[in-house]
UniProtKB/TrEMBL annotation:
Keyword Repeat on entry: no
Protein name per the record: ATPase family associated with various cellular activities (AAA)
One function term, GO molecular function aspect: ATP hydrolysis activity
UniProt-listed Gene3D superfamilies: P-loop containing nucleotide triphosphate hydrolases (3.40.50.300)
Domain AAA+ ATPase stretches: 73-205
Region of interest (Disordered), ranges: 1-38
Source superkingdom: Bacteria
SMART domains reported in the protein's UniProt record: AAA (SM00382)
Species classification: Bacteria, Bacillati, Actinomycetota, Actinomycetes, Micrococcales
Nucleotide-binding among keywords: yes
Family: Belongs to the AAA ATPase family.
Keyword tags: ATP-binding, Nucleotide-binding
A Pfam family this chain is assigned to: AAA
Length: 320
C-alpha cells in the first residue's frame, strides 16, 4: 500500500515539521498549520460524495495496481459547496484514512495580509507540501483562483492563477492536493479543468441531518425528538446543526434540564410553513414541553385557532 511505501521512504523525503523549515511569511510566522494525526469524527455527507472520497482512499491503498496499468491516482481534488457543509472536515477525513499529515493554508488570510508577496508565499507552501507525503488543504480557494478576465482584480492575483495552473499540472501523486471553495462560479475555468476530481457537497438532506444528530446524541436522546428536530432544521448546514446542538447542551447543563427539551425550544419556532412538520412539532411542544395552545400560538406568532386545529389534525393522524 501507499502508506507502507511512504513509511519505508528515506527520512529526507519526510514532510518537515520543524518550525524553522516550514514556509513562513516576511515576519517569520508559519504560513501553514500542520496536523500530523488528523481526526475527522462526525463527518456525514451524501452517499455519492462519501463514495467518491472512499474511491480516493481505495486508489491510495492499491496504488501499485494503478501504476502497473500506467494510471495515476487522484492527485488533485476540488471540493465546492455552501459554508458549513464539511469541506475542511472532508479533507481531514481523507488525510486520516490515507494516513498522512494534513497541511492547511487559508488562502484568504494570506492574500489579505501579505498581498505584495502572495504569489511567492503560496508557491513556497506548494513546494513544502511536496517535501514529503501529505494532504494539502487550500481553503478559500476562490480568494486567489479567480477568473483572469475579472477587471476588478489586481495584477498579482492574475499572476497567482498562472502559478497555480503550473503547479496543478505537475503536482506529484505522492501528495494529495485538496482545494475548497464556497464560490465555484468565481474560479477561472482553466483552474477547474486542472483538477482530477470535483466533488460538490450539498446541504445535508433528511438522512444526513438525522445521522448528524444521532452522532451528536450518542444514543442518549429521544428518537422522536431527533426526528422532529431533523425535519425542523431542513435547509441548514452540518455546522449549523452542530452549533444548535452545542447551544442546547450548554443550556441543559446550566439549567439542569433535558437536552432534548432545550433542543426543541431552540428549533421549534424556526418552521412556520403550514404542514405535517409544523403540526408534529407543535404536538410535541404540547405533550413534551407542556405548552398550551395559546402559549404555542404566542411563540409561533399565529392565532390560537390555528394551533388548536393543527393539534387536532395531528392527534387524529396519531390515533389512526
Amino acid at each position: 500500500m501507499l502508506r507502507d511505501a511512504m513509511s519505508a521512504s528515506p527520512a529526507t523525503n519526510a514532510l518537515r515539521f520543524a518550525p524553522g523549515e516550514m514556509p513562513q511569511d516576511a515576519e517569520t510566522n508559519p504560513l501553514v498549520d500542520v496536523d500530523p494525526t488528523p481526526s475527522s469524527a462526525g463527518l456525514v455527507l451524501a452517499p455519492k460524495a462519501m463514495e467518491e472520497l472512499n474511491e480516493i482512499v481505495e486508489e491510495r491503498d492499491h496504488i501499485d495496481k494503478l501504476q502497473l496499468a500506467g494510471v495515476a491516482p487522484t492527485r488533485t481534488l476540488l471540493l465546492s459547496g455552501p459554508p458549513g457543509v464539511g469541506k475542511s472536515l472532508a479533507a481531514r477525513w481523507l488525510a486520516e484514512h490515507i494516513d498522512l499529515p494534513l497541511v492547511s493554508l487559508d488562502l484568504a488570510s494570506v492574500v489579505s495580509s501579505y498581498l505584495g508577496s502572495s504569489g511567492r508565499n503560496i508557491k513556497s507552501v506548494l513546494h513544502y507540501a511536496q517535501t514529503g507525503p501529505c494532504v494539502l488543504l487550500l481553503d478559500e480557494f476562490d480568494a486567489v483562483a479567480k477568473r483572469r478576465d475579472d477587471d476588478t482584480d489586481i495584477g498579482e492575483l492574475k499572476r497567482i492563477v498562472n502559478v497555480l495552473l503550473v503547479e496543478l499540472d505537475r503536482w506529484s501523486e505522492t501528495s494529495l492536493l485538496v482545494a475548497a471553495t464556497n464560490h465555484p462560479q468565481l474560479l477561472d475555468p482553466a483552474i477547474g479543468r486542472r483538477f482530477d476530481r470535483w466533488i460538490d457537497l450539498a446541504l445535508p438532506g433528511p438522512q444526513e441531518r438525522r445521522l448528524i444528530l444521532g452522532h451528536l446524541a450518542n444514543d442518549q436522546s429521544d428518537s422522536t425528538v431527533l426526528d422532529i428536530v431533523s425535519d425542523l432544521l431542513d435547509g441548514v448546514s452540518g455546522s449549523e446543526i452542530v452549533r444548535v446542538w452545542e447551544l442546547a447542551k450548554r443550556r441543559s447543563i446550566l439549567r439542569g434540564s433535558s437536552i432534548d427539551d432545550e433542543l426543541l425550544e431552540e428549533v421549534l419556532w424556526r418552521h412556520t410553513e403550514p404542514g405535517p412538520v409544523r403540526d408534529r412539532a407543535w404536538l410535541l411542544a404540547s405533550s413534551r414541553l407542556g405548552l398550551s395552545a395559546r402559549q404555542i400560538a404566542h411563540r409561533a406568532h399565529v392565532t390560537h385557532p390555528t394551533v388548536s386545529a393543527a393539534l387536532r389534525r395531528q392527534k387524529e393522524l396519531t390515533n389512526g
